[in-house]
Amino acid sequence: MSSKYDVLVIGGGNAALCAAISARRGGASVLVLEGAPKFYRGGNTRHTRNMRCAHDEATEILTGPYTEEEFWEDLLRVTGGQTDEILARHMIRESKDILNWIVEQGVRWQPSLGGTLSLGRTNSFFLGGGRAMLNALYLTAEKLGVEVEYDAEVTDLVIEDGMFLAACLKRPIKGDTEIRATSLVAAAGGFEANIEWLKQYWGEAADNFLIRGTPYNRGSILKMLLAKGVQEVGDPTQCHAVAIDARAPKFDGGIITRHDSVVFGIVVNKHAQRFYDEGEDIWPKRYAIWGRLVAAQPDQIAYIIFDSTVVTSFMPTLFPPIAGQTIAELAGKLELDPAALEKTITEFNAAVRPGTFDHTILDDCRTEGITPPKTHWARRIETPPYLAYPVRPGITFTYLGTRVTREARMLMADGKPSANMFAAGEIMAGNVLGKGYAAGMGMTIGSVFGRIAGREAAKHARN
Amino acid sequence: MHGTRILDEADRLMTVCNSCRYCEGLCAVFPAMEMRRAFSDGDLNYLANLCHGCGACYVDCQFSPPHEFNVNVPQTLAIARAESYAAYAWPQALSGVFARNGLVISIVAALSMAAFILGFAALNDRTVLFGVHTGPGAFYKLMPHNAMAALFSAAFLYAIFALVMSVRAFWRDIGPPIGGRADGGSIFQAMRDAGELRYLHGGGVGCYNEDDKPTDRRKLFHHLTFYGFLLCFAATSVATLYHYLLGREAPYPWWDLPVVLGTLGGIGLIIGPIGLFVAKMRRDPALLDEQRYGMDVGFIAMLFLTGFTGMLLLILRETAAMGPLLALHLGAVFALFVTMPYGKFVHGIYRFAALVRYAQERRSDAGS
After folding, report:
1. CA R_g for chain A
2. CA of B52, closest CA in chain A: separation in Å?
3. A81 and chain B in contact, CB less than 8 A
4. Rounded distance, CA A131 to CA B63, Å?
5. According to CATH, where is 3.90.700.10 located in chain A?
6. For the segment B235-274, what is each residue's pLDDT rounded down to a tens digit?
């Protein structure tokens, strides 16, 4: 038994829903298969809050223009040139219209949130956050007649000569265990929640990683597509990782477990040794390096250590800092060697040069004579209580994906475009983002390529 | 740690929310939260009363149940809000009324209506009680105007006094506004915010109900109820002025101001509460303080009863049913007045006070 749709969308996040809506608006019958239960629908979109779109003028919610060229330069900088220029420029051009298109799909914008002033010009924030955005997209899709199934795990894809034929289901839907469709849109995300897969590149260290999104981002669709001859793109060994609170849950802790206090103190490993310049660059530009740095430390754990003078300099945190009246007491609570921590902090304090502290610029507060140095915002840690956050690598997303054309059509390993397979969102983000990240870009990739993929998939189905 | 379990939970949630802030654009609660890094009992009661319970932050939250962070702001603040009514009630001896509010309100209403009927029957003979009275002074054949005025003024003034004392305790407990003082501008802003129910809008799309879609019409029905109540109050006030200043006695003809105001208000007080009740039945139980179901329904029922008996009285005032209907209507209104400080009515007063405080904080925040 099998049912037949014009367009089958696998995945349930921003890219999948934009594809489903755009395909449905293009006249196609559409089924969305979301592998997660309804509450966890939407993958990483659940935890997002904004999207980066080019615009020539300030809007009600954006404080000034952000031209295509500036967007391109930002992308070039964060990826170090590891991007497909034609595809990236196409996406940036399309992103301008997305600002309006996404509102037509029921999503509402708001000005940048408190504590995110640096994004006020470039990024549009979703009113109510990523889940609110998803709710709006699902509501619109359902009103348009898109069918949505949850807990719909796909176990296999039937693909012949680059042509999608059917998807096999773990659990039958309306009695069918196989869904046929004229076109496929794969928008099922990356494999960041698949610890075994991460272990292929990171070894046992991956056991100590925390996953910022849901446990359902297992990359099974990506794996099937690559195994069936779709060309891969992006560095399979790489992932976006930030330092998040070590007390966070293994999965789905989202944004609230992050720490933006690194620049206000020092960071030590389990041997109470510093290992990187905490004052290298302005937050949040170097936000994402700390996940990787902590991943490289023994047992993948580190501690941000600061004193009571800076507590109100950063956003309130979900988990309170661990406190000690003396360095030794703090070390005891963190299970670090007290003598080693005292030595590290004494040496650091002695190396701090006088300067004028200003966390909004690269100020002149720096250390001299220690390795690694702290090149900005270095101030002595000397006012008890002494405070610490334990941190671990928090994995946001992976870079490995399927190569696509400007029409979001998958390319096969032999370089030929697939007849009827399209991809959107994180599963193909590696085409644009070879490495690095800039806030809101994942959602841009999702919405722009989702909309294109849906339109092209519907066009194929109608012909 | 706070005084109660629910305030501990509210504190936990505000700590979660303050490290997220995605809901900042939805209403006043989250911006007010962001002005603080720690929360006293008063702060939490302030935030609880600032919340209008639209439910948007629940359906928008990536950490709402079944997520292990178990973030349910609307329900937690609804419970905290109800507990705050009891905590600030004057006199404190009557704070227990909030715990079994539906029961107490029904008993008071029944007793009050029975007292008026029995009183009318005892003081008037059957021909008067079931007689047909028309023309000026018809109502006062059953109960002298001065007696009526004295009784209702006493009940009303008591309600006002008890409410003032309660809100005073609340105002003191929520502390001085962050960086500001009470001023006319803030009060005017709060009147506008309350008058248009600015924050009962789900961030712009409306309130949420059981199918997590913003299709709820509570704002409309609340407007009908609230403005219906005000119109009825205005009708009574105008009639009182007619009586004492112009010497014109009720009942008035249908086109006269008190009757026009009363009729419009009565329609609002019938449709509004029915709509609110239906909306309540259709809401997701996860958003509600189900313990306080009786309090909410009791108040809705009292408003409906007031409007309904008033309209019946208007329609049938020239028939033999006038006497008993007048007794029922006066009984309903009397019960509404005396239970005002100890029922859901107080939500409007505390929320208004919270909106004034919020307007103050916003103004001083913008000024700094």
Report:
1. 23
2. 16
3. no
4. 10
5. 242-394
6. 999 999 999 999 999 899 999 999 999 999 999 999 999 9
